[in-house]
UniProtKB/TrEMBL annotation:
PROSITE patterns per UniProt: EAL, GGDEF, RESPONSE_REGULATORY
SUPFAM superfamilies given in the database record: CheY-like, EAL domain-like, Nucleotide cyclase
Keyword Phosphoprotein listed: yes
Every EAL domain range: 313-567
Pfam families, per the entry: EAL, GGDEF, Response_reg
Name of protein: EAL domain-containing protein
Amino acid sequence: MIPTTPLHSAKILIVDDQPLNLTVLEHLLASAGYTEVSATSDAPAVAALHRLHRYDLIVLDLNMPDMDGFQVLDSLRLIETEQYLPVLVMSAEPDYKLRALEAGARDFIGKPCDYSELLSRVRNLLEVRLLYTGSRDYGRRMASHDSLTGLPNRQLFAASLEHQLAAAWPRASALLLIDLDGFTAVNDTLGHAAGDALLHQFAQRLKALAPPQAAIGRLGNDEFALLLPALEQIPQASAVADQIRTALHLPFELPAGPTTLTVSIGIATCPGDADDVATLVRYADIALHQAKQEGRDHCCYFTSAMNQQAQSRYQLEHALRAACVNGEFELHYQPKAQISSGRIVGAEALLRWNRPGHGRVSPGEFIPLLERTGLIVQVGAWAIDEACRQIAAWAQLSNGPLPIAVNVASRQFADAKLEQTVAAAIARHGIDPGLLSLEVTESALMDDIGRTAATLAELRAMGVRIAIDDFGTGYSSLAYLKRFPVDTLKIDIAFIREVTSSPDDAAVVDAIVAMAHSLKLDVVAEGVETAAQLAYLGRHRCDQIQGYYFSRPLPAEQMEQLLRDGVRLQLPADAGNAPERTLLIIDDEPHVLTALQRLLRQDGYRVLAANGAAQAFQLLAEHQVQLILCDQRMEEMSGTDLLDKIKHMYPDTFRIILSGYTDLKTIMESINRGALYRFYTKPWDNRTLRDNIRSAFRHYWQLHGLAEPEVAAPMPLQPAGGVC
């Protein structure tokens, strides 16, 4: 580590066209103890100033009016022809990072920046700078850096590991050793000049991908090292490894033409695997050797538990690539049913994979990997074509063609060929474009709004229908619903799961349905699994449902049989019927429930009974209830709390508390909130209770402007009595 005094006396120049930025950075560096700090807003003069003062570090803004930062870098390279260019660039444009590094900058930090991070980077750059400037000559630099890539060599990288690991302790760090697969063949077939060009380009990509505090080195011929210090979680190392492997999908531009390579990566962690540099490097090297033994494009952890997990994931990716080649995917179809008629009016095509030797793989396991690797573009194109083929096949059935929806991932929207893929599939199978629907998540829509809007407009112009999947979980807003040409909203299962018992979820569902209908959009509820959910959605004007209550996703043959058999969705018996005088009694004491049912059925009511909140919510969803009689003191939830929730979900109901437990304050608060219509005490008088219930029903029909249903004449009143 460089002593503090030489660092603080290093010469630093700040270049920015904003006087306020200059003042803030000067003050920040001075507060950190740096004594030789100067600043300028004159970008064209930077090269001359550096020639005169030979700064140890230049903090350079890229976006300046008279002369941008890239031009400044070009002028500095003319001075530092064979030396280290001491520039830390700053910009609010993250896309400039790779370009700036390729132009010679040593580091990049985005605006606005964290000042602690900025000071850390300044210190790190100065430490490297002072290793071969000032008292150290150019020869020392050549001894510690790789002349081809400019990266620290094995000796310098190992020395820097000591400092990085100590600074990160006790947080975990990960060392990645990276080896280019097949690099020897490039040297042998294309020559050493091509090999050098490839190594230089790879080093630039590695610099661009490395997180801000990472350390990079070239350890040997085609072996590189990347230290990730102070990780929040060890799996972050896997994410970086994935990024490196993905970056190599882009070819290297060599004189003989584009060339593509893969990498093998070995990972060891500190302090999990080792707490000293030598052992950490050795363990990472063992993991790298294991990765190379398993073939190209592999990543291995040294730790056995981590290694097993990593192996499964990377093996899965290789199996996925083979599945794409071998055609191992298939589509299953989950029908969508119209609530009003029960007819099947569409289906969603869902991707399935039967992995050879392993059986069915969960979509939640392989689809995210398809998206992460970019294979989703290829597989998604196949799914669109296969869905169009199936639409054409089912069009020959007697009950007519069936619309099919296909999910489209954000990576597919980023592909410029999506529109051509859809158009080609429609033309190839000769189907009506309106029978194909593309389902897009809200997050996918918002990745690139301009591109998304243009793509959707072109698809819509073809006649293809557009649905927003998982609506309510992302950027739900009227603004983008107006901007994007959408036909259908699909309510996410997260809101359907507890729609019959959660006032919040019920409110969201009601709001989505109302908003969609006001915009003339169809509404589909996903994940409907119970009769209560179906009944609730039907009464609240949802158009269609999809879920296991009606049918699981089916292979094409079984789906076709469902269509041939004319299977329909059966609504709960009470859904959509004319109102009937219905009373719900809630009490956790069975003998009380029995007594009240026996008493009140004498007056011709349909009496429903629930022993607690869960059963009550289910009955409320399945039946049209006008009056609720609820005990106050129940173990699961107090009567007033339960009726508060019911009030929000079923505001038209009349809610009555019947209890021997008289907490007047709680009861009055509930009445004042509008949660209660009446409060009666136990023991009750049979005659009085029957009269009051009859009056409550009469009030209900009058309040809602409805004629009271005709019922049989009530039976004679029982003698006055009570039940506890």
